[in-house]
Design goal:
Layout (H helix, E strand, L loop, with lengths): L1 E5 L5 H11 L3 E5 L10 H4 L9 E4 L2 E4 L1 H11 L10 H26 L8 H25 L13 H14 L7 H4 L1 H11 L2 H10 L6
Helix pairs in contact: 1-3, 1-6, 1-9, 4-5, 4-6, 6-8
Length: about 210
């Protein structure tokens, strides 16, 4: 059985959603950040990076959201979570790379400024610049979704599930964006996903509020 180590509302939400959408047999194991469990010897033995998610398949461990999303999608082909068309395949990979390398990192400059500066003034500057960068990046994502039902191709893919994480972060207290007003295309995607039974189940399990 697959075992997913995750934290509610973290980027691991994308992997949790993918497993549920794929109909996989899995166990979700919560890593309590409030108790710093991600730095515990037991968890570091699983993922020395001290981050979530980590996916365990027997004696094999996989980390990093894009890799896990691809693995889940490719190992459960009947769910159709990875596009078959060569261009849609490439587009899905492009979305995962952008989310991981740019969208997530932009948010981290606001949420985790201490990673990038030590002094109070330095942290404040990182946060201010990070917030402006997030505004720009969020607008780019919204523009890319204009006129589209799904992010990559004409069907749901893991790219959509990953994008839902950052929509949630945009709505959350760190950024506090008015997602419906400022990013309507992205919000339409989030609302579409919120109607899916698998998404509803995962949100209930993680104690999260669905997009509205």
């Amino acid at each position: 059985m697959l075992k997913l180590y995750h934290s509610p509302g973290a980027c691991s939400l994308a992997a949790h959603l993918a497993l549920e959408e794929a109909g996989a047999t899995y166990e979700a194991v919560r890593v309590n950040f409030a108790e710093n469990q991600q730095r515990s010897p037991a968890y570091l033995a699983i993922n020395p990076k001290g981050r979530v998610p980590a996916l365990v398949d027997g004696d094999w461990v996989l980390t990093e959201v894009p890799a896990i999303l691809r693995y889940v999608a490719r190992s459960h082909p009947a769910a159709g979570l990875w596009p078959e068309d060569v261009r849609d395949d490439a587009r899905c990979a492009e979305w995962l790379a952008w989310c991981s390398s740019t969208v997530h990192v932009s948010y981290a400059h606001v949420r985790r400024a201490e990673r990038y500066a030590e002094s109070a003034a330095g942290k404040a500057e990182v946060e201010e610049k990070g917030r402006a960068t997030c505004r720009d990046v969020w607008a780019q994502v919204d523009a890319r979704l204009a006129g589209r039902v799904w992010a990559a191709g004409d069907k749901l893919s893991v790219a959509d599930l990953y994008l839902l994480v950052f929509w949630m972060w945009g709505r959350g207290p760190t950024l506090g964006f008015d997602m419906a007003t400022d990013y309507p295309n992205w919000t339409a995607l989030a609302r579409r996903l919120a109607e899916r039974p698998a998404v509803r189940r995962v949100f209930e399990k993680e104690g999260l509020r669905l997009p509205e």
